[in-house]
TrEMBL record:
The keyword Magnesium does not apply. This is Predicted flavoprotein CzcO associated with the cation diffusion facilitator CzcD. InterPro entries: FAD-binding_Monooxygenases, FAD/NAD-bd_sf, Flavin_mOase-like. GO terms for molecular function: flavin adenine dinucleotide binding; N,N-dimethylaniline monooxygenase activity; NADP binding. Pfam families: FMO-like. It comes from Rhodococcus koreensis.
Amino acid sequence: MTSRTTPQIVDAVVIGAGFGGIYAVHKLHNELGLTTVGFDKADGPGGTWYWNRYPGALSDTESHVYRFSFDEDLLQDGTWEHTYITQPEILDYLEGVVDRFDLRRHFRFGTEVTSAVYLDDQALWEVTTDTGAVYRATYVINAVGLLSAINFPDLPGLDTFEGETIHTAAWPEGKDLAGRRVGVIGTGSTGQQVVTALAPEVEHLTVFVRTPQYSVPVGKRPVTAEQIDAVKADYDRIWSQVKKSSVAFGFEESTVPAMSVSEQERRRVFEEAWQHGGGFRFMFATFGDIATDEEANEAAASFIRAKIAEVIEDPETARTLTPTGLFARRPLCDDGYHRVFNRPNVDAVGIKENPIREVTANGVVTEDGVLHELDVLVFATGFDAVDGNYRRMEIRGRGGLNINDHWGGQPTSYLGISTANFPNWFMVLGPNGPFTNLPPSIETQVEWISDTIAYAERTGLRAIEPTPEAEAEWTDTCTEIANMTVFTKVDSWIFGANIPGKKPSVLFYLGGLGNYRAVLADVTADGYRGFESADTIAA
Ligand code: FAD
Ligand code: NA7
């Protein structure tokens, strides 16, 4: 393929300016000295936290471990006000990191990468943007986000709606819905946050509930300067624990089987976790088998259902909002979500048994014929997770192979980082990467990618890519681990089961960050086991 615009030659292209892209540009430019250009279609850095400006947007990872760990001074200079940090605080933090490491000048914001095509004869990637710019680079690092490609369901009649429609992941800065009649579709993590925040602001809130979810209190509390100092003094131990742990959320995971203790003891442990707060903590710090054993899972699930029943006053509303079956989606936590349904201005409409029939000029009509009149319809309907953003670009590897053809219905990778026939093309949080608190996993992958690139540069490797066999083996490993859990038994974005027409498949390595880091270290120590020994550039 030849390009019409004269290509600019760089060593590396980084796509995305969230945690992953920011760190990748820092590593490649500031540490390896490679000419590096980063792109983001957003007008600034932040990724997730640039886009998700909806009221109530909050990290559900505790503040002190929802950040980079790679720089001691950055850690010691960091601060936070509550046990959890809000979207504006995270955005501020990431902008600060970009400026601190002088990275802004390497990024082209407001620029979407439309294609990345491997030029076999030159062993270079040709990357094209929507501004018409063309770059050629030895390496491409995709940090395009795993929860970033928006899922915007096309409801019948949506184009006739005369009010406003807003997706939570494209929330206009400062958009205020005070005094409006608002509908929210979606009650996942995002839906719960936006509903809780909007309820006291808006004139009326109608929440369309398809699948109610298990959720525990987040436990957002103010922190004192002394508490922050204590964390900072202990950061070496904290990060070491995070990186050896499974879900990397900064707490010790339990190994005690739930059914090995008395019912009274189980209730005490659940109650303690409920009072402390945190979704992952409730699932993984209470007992060691809630995610793997159905009886243990039901014990946790019934505890949460009883709590919901205690809070919601109206029995029909409680029924609409009470989950059934396994507690097997990404564990959620909230800041008083169920309580808002006791407000006179908030209604829950169960759309499993009474689906949305259509959207009309004035609102949403359900199958029972009721028109729910609305000025604004908010979509908290989530994302085409993991591979969504890859499939939105034209990506061609060796011999013009399109990533969509390579992946077919199931996106795969070796180590969540690379894929066969796509040389020198790396992914941060690609398919079958770790399922954890994400910044430590992102750091792990970016560090491994950057070490691998340093190795390639040092040894004169022209290209590095995994073998199809290594990729197939990694897929099998991830599938085997996933099948040991209850997560596979429930539809959710973790398996791509939230997008109509998308084939559900394993998208994560559920073996934990500690084990994942050990695998990466082992692969490197074993001479990049599973990678093609690419030819050396002729001297
Ligand atoms: P992102 O932050 O998603 O950044 C990817 C960037 O790539 C985006 O800015 C996008 O515009 C850009 N991009 C994609 N394609 C292109 C293209 N073709 N051209 C140009 N630019 C492109 N994780 C946790 O661990 N804990 C949490 O509490 C948590 N809370 C979350 C809450 C919300 C509302 C959401 C949506 C996600 C949350 N996550 C959480 C996941 C979160 O996405 C990660 O923690 C992390 O921010 C991901 O960083 P990233 O750099 O990999 O991707
Ligand atoms: P989720 O968890 O995918 O939740 C999306 C919600 O939207 C969920 O309640 C869906 O119901 C609902 N949904 C999606 N499509 C429709 C249609 N067509 N009609 C009605 N309801 C629909 O996304 P979130 O943004 O909340 O969270 C994703 C992750 O990002 C989260 O874990 C955090 O890490 C941040 P369903 O359950 O499919 O019945």
